[in-house]
Amino acid sequence: MSDIEEEEVGEERDEDVDVIGEYEGQRNEKCQRHGIGRALLPNKDYYEGRYNQGLRHGLGLYIFKNGARYNGRYSKGKKDGIGIFIYPDGTKYEGEWKDDERHGYGIYHYANGDFYEGQWRKGVKEGLGCYYFKETGAKYLGLWMEGKMNGQGQQVTKNYRYHGTWVDNLPYGKGCFSFSETKVIQHGFYLNIMGSDIDQGGLDEEEEMTIHPVWRPRDITLFSASQLPTEPKPLEYPSDVSRSPSPEPTPPPSVDVYEKDFFKDIAQYDKYYQDEKLMWQTDKWDTEILEELKKRAEHHHMSEEEEFMHEGYVTDPLETE
């Protein structure tokens, strides 16, 4: 199956509004879910992460009962910011989100080994991106529109590179091939011809007609970079459709860690989440432990230098004597 021509398998569905079901966590004065908590929804989906006034907001992990999972940022109950979505069939998207849709820069890994890296807009590939075909080793680098190869681009293989224009995933119009070994450029154009993959015996009435690109060479010249089309550039959208700012983590990081390394970014924010979660759990511990900490504090009047030099110093204040 060619993944660039098919609907993406295992697409995420809307997550239930988790105002019901089992919940454990922090609440505000209005008894809304607010802060850190976890919820088991009536449909058996599971969420653990941050809430703000009853809505998922900040870093969170959502696990669907069908095996899919999302680990990333939320804003006002929707996926927004950087996040990783793993689908039941093994496909995976890691990148930017807006209003529950892939939007911005991201990488989509397909189950067959193909992957796409580039721009997204409102859930589909749109802008400048690269699609790698694992089976052939070829890749397409160029413009996309409404999820298909549309516009200026290049097809790159081991032996040659084609420069031209694509329309609905097919090369069309003027273009040229450059060859790595012969150092020449072949100029020509593509025609899209209606046809079908049938035997010479004839066309069945129910046989679906397909479009096949046919290359018409016209000229061969020595290689010169000046004869090649200009490189495709990323699309720029008006400010009203650009990616909304990601919600700030709580507490905020000490340095700006926003990068295209999504695993590093999620791990960074996850650290702050786990630290705050530990603080929340600490508040639930027995008062006996808190009293023990107070007693230890009363018996330790050494200076900082003496504490570090003391052989019996315990680094974990919760460790029992």
Automatic annotation (TrEMBL):
GO terms for cellular component: motile cilium; nucleus. The keyword Cell inner membrane does not apply. SUPFAM superfamilies: Histone H3 K4-specific methyltransferase SET7/9 N-terminal domain. It comes from the Eukaryota. Keywords: Repeat. Residues 227-257, 298-321 are annotated as: Disordered. One of its GO terms (biological process) is spermatid development. Transmembrane segments: none annotated. It holds the Pfam family MORN. This is Radial spoke head 1 homolog. It comes from Nezara viridula (Southern green stink bug). The lineage of its organism: Eukaryota, Metazoa, Ecdysozoa, Arthropoda, Hexapoda.
